[in-house]
What we know:
Blueprint: H1 21-33, E1 40-44, H2 54-66, E2 78-83, E3 95-102, E4 116-120, H3 134-144, H4 166-176, H5 183-202, H6 207-212, H7 222-225
Parallel strand pairs: 1-2
Antiparallel strand pairs: 2-3, 3-4
Helix pairs in contact: 3-5, 4-5
The structure holds zinc ion.
Amino acid sequence: MVEVAFPCNSTSTTTECEMDPASEVEARRVFSASGRQVVGWFHSHPTFEATPSVRDIHNQHAYQSLCRRAADGIEPFVGVIVSPPGGTGPYGVSDISVFYVTPPGPDDDHMGAEALPFSLPFTVTGQHAIAADLLDAMAHLIESHADLIQRADLAKRFKRNEAMTSLEKLLVSMRYRWAEDIRQQWDEHVALRLRPLLLLHFCRGSASETGNSTPIATSRNATSTVSNE
Ligand SMILES: [Zn+2]
């Protein structure tokens, strides 16, 4: 069961993703301080589908190996990929996939064999109540990345030929993750707290374009999406 996600910094290029080691250490410290243990990692594919790359499979295999339990050989560690382009769900909603790899067997050619990825089914729970500290964590996440030079400009359209900006798309995608009876409450949090921060720090383009065209709409991000059982 994934209860919480820690937003590690990455040392990503446009096509590959690596966790920043210092950030990973910090995540482990935070988790163990709350009596939790690390059970997976997540990253996004900003421009392509939520299937693991060769590098992702390699990394997942390495992480799983580190988590192998001596007693039963089980490796309780999953990989989660969020794909903002989406395409398999409702309009604007990012795709999420969870994967695991089977390591090469003892009979495989040691040098040539590859770990095989497969997709894990998952169920999202906890979408009926907004955790008290979630908004604080999200606000902190936005503010702590406000000076990042390579941050996305959410005022831009999320795809060519789309009227929707990346900001609107983000809010639509997050909102979808909440149960319907929670969405109005979520909208209020977004309007009061998250949207102003995103406009301030992540919308460098025409402020007038983003300032008045977006209905209040939202939901949550990859972090909380994965609060699964
Ligand atoms: Zn990847």
